[in-house]
């Protein structure tokens, strides 16, 4: 028998491969157990938890012992926007199964609440990319957004009695209100962090939840074979989750408020405001367009049947439209400009491109009428308060009297008590404000591009 202690031992590379393979297998087993734990804790998120795909990252091995070494940068088991969860094998082996399960529920929250799409940080911003394979997002804005998104999720987990691991953001522990959106938590955390920082402490640990939280791709997301979900699969999955939550709510089963609110918004029918506005305008002008009258400007084709008699022709008038624009200052010029362009495009389709449009700007009083052919010709004048009673009175006093009045406003204005002489369509910009009952109303999002994406 050889006295060499290394005799009979596998080569170092083969031993390392064997250790890595065993760690990967054990990490997947723990992930599966954590998934079952998460489903048991929040059954209304079961389909989302099972949709998560584990991508195991090769662990670093101790040079002396050859054992896997946990990487603290992966303590949150970060997820990407394709529903892949990146599992560093050694970290998984060193983390209790319930804690892994907690992170799975946490990342489902990031994914279904579209935190990556809502993130104010963009990849092209300098210094925002998490370029290190497992490094935290170093950009302060991205890190703050990650914390705010965590706060939006973690209050619902706490409502289920699921306290997070040490060092994660907790609205309850920090004394912040619950059931707020990430956008609301950002300024709160800024103020709190500044106050806590004066005492030499950190608000919370630097936890990186991956691109599922902030939309910034990490280099490790290219590793492994995790294909993730397609856009259509994500859409169908989210609708299924929302429907399940509403079914449980109807059955009086306990579901945290944040998830109930998300499900309601997710399943709320999205009305394309452009289509709705076009329908209202066409309906308002249809009566005028359908009216016919006799005109001698163009002889009738039947004149030959009446020798010596000039017979008038039947004509259909071009409907007259007046647009009243709220220029009080509470609505920004870019939003008004885009909305005027939408209105003129719709009118072109209804009355033809050769019509002239009358426009009235209104704050506390109506300004002189403008006759324009294109949206670019409109000059937005005025400022201060708003009194749409003056604007509508001026519009209906015009001659010829308009067949339709379109009002662009945020609704923060007094309205006439009685219906004006002409039909009125009110475009309410933003979520606030109201329109009178006698007007046809369409709600227009202030951030039109974001609403478009959400409705597509």
Detail the topology: elements first, then pairings.
Elements: H1 12-41, H2 46-51, E1 53-57, E2 60-61, E3 68-69, E4 84-88, H3 89-94, H4 97-112, H5 115-118, H6 140-159, H7 171-174, H8 182-197, H9 211-214, H10 231-250, H11 257-267, H12 273-290, E5 293-299, E6 312-315, E7 321-326, H13 333-351, E8 357-362, E9 370-372, H14 388-396, E10 404-409, E11 424-429, E12 440-444, H15 448-455
Parallel strand pairs: 1-4, 7-8, 7-10, 10-11, 11-12
Antiparallel strand pairs: 2-3, 5-6, 8-9
- Contiguous low-pLDDT stretches (5 residues minimum) are 125-138, 449-456
Oligomerization state: single chain
Query: How much β-strand is present in the residues?
Result: 5-15%
**Main β sheet profile:** 6 strands, mixed
Shape: elongated
Number of strand elements: 12
What is the count of structural domains? 2
Assign the structural class, choosing from mainly alpha, mainly beta, alpha/beta, alpha+beta, or little secondary structure.
alpha/beta
What's the alpha carbon Rg, rounded to whole Å? Answer: 32 Å
Mean pLDDT: 81
Distance between the termini: 75 Å
One letter per element, helices H and strands E, the order comes to: HHEEEEHHHHHHHHHHEEEHEEHEEEH
Number of helices: 15
Helix content: 40-55%
Strand order of the largest sheet: 9-8-7-10-11-12
């Amino acid at each position: 028998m050889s006295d060499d202690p290394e005799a009979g031992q596998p080569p170092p590379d083969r031993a390392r491969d064997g250790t890595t393979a065993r760690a990967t297998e054990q990490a997947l087993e723990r992930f599966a157990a954590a998934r079952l734990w998460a489903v048991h804790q929040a059954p209304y998120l079961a389909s989302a938890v099972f949709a998560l795909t584990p991508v195991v990252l090769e662990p670093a091995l101790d040079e002396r012992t050859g054992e896997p070494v946990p990487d603290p940068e992966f303590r949150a088991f970060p997820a990407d926007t394709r529903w892949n969860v990146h599992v560093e094998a050694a970290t998984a082996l060193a983390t209790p199964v319930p804690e892994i399960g907690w992170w799975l529920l946490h990342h489902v929250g990031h994914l279904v609440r579209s935190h990556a799409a809502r993130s104010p940080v963009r990849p092209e911003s300098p210094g925002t990319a998490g370029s290190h394979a497992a490094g935290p997002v170093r950009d302060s804005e991205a890190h703050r957004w990650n914390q705010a998104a965590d706060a939006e999720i973690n209050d619902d987990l706490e409502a289920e009695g699921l306290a997070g691991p040490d060092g994660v953001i907790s609205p309850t522990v920090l004394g912040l209100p619950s059931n707020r959106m990430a956008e609301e938590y950002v300024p709160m955390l800024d103020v709190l962090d500044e106050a806590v920082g004066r005492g030499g402490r950190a608000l919370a640990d630097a936890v990186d939840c991956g691109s599922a939280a902030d939309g910034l791709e990490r280099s490790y997301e290219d590793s492994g074979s995790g294909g993730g979900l397609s856009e259509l699969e994500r859409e169908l999955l989210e609708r299924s989750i929302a429907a399940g939550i509403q079914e449980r709510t109807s059955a009086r089963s306990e579901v945290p408020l944040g998830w109930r609110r998300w499900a309601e918004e997710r399943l709320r029918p999205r009305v394309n405001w452009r289509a709705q506005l076009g329908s209202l305008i066409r309906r308002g002008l249809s009566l005028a367009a359908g009216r016919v009258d006799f005109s001698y400007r163009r002889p009738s084709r039947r004149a030959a049947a009446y020798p010596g008699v000039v017979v008038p022709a039947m004509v259909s008038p071009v409907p007259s439209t007046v647009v009243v624009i709220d220029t009080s200052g509470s609505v920004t010029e870019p939003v008004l400009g885009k909305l005027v362009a939408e209105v003129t495009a719709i009118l072109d389709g209804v009355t033809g491109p050769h019509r002239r449009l009358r426009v009235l700007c209104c704050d506390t009083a109506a300004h002189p009428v403008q006759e324009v052919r294109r949206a670019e010709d409109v000059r937005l004048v005025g400022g201060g308060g708003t009194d749409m009673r003056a604007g509508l009175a001026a519009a209906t006093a015009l001659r010829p009297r308009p067949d339709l009045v379109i009002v662009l406003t945020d609704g923060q204005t007094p309205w006439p008590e009685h219906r004006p002489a002409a039909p009125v369509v009110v475009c309410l910009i933003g979520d606030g404000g109201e329109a009178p009952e006698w007007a046809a109303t369409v709600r227009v999002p202030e951030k039109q591009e974001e609403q478009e994406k959400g409705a597509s």
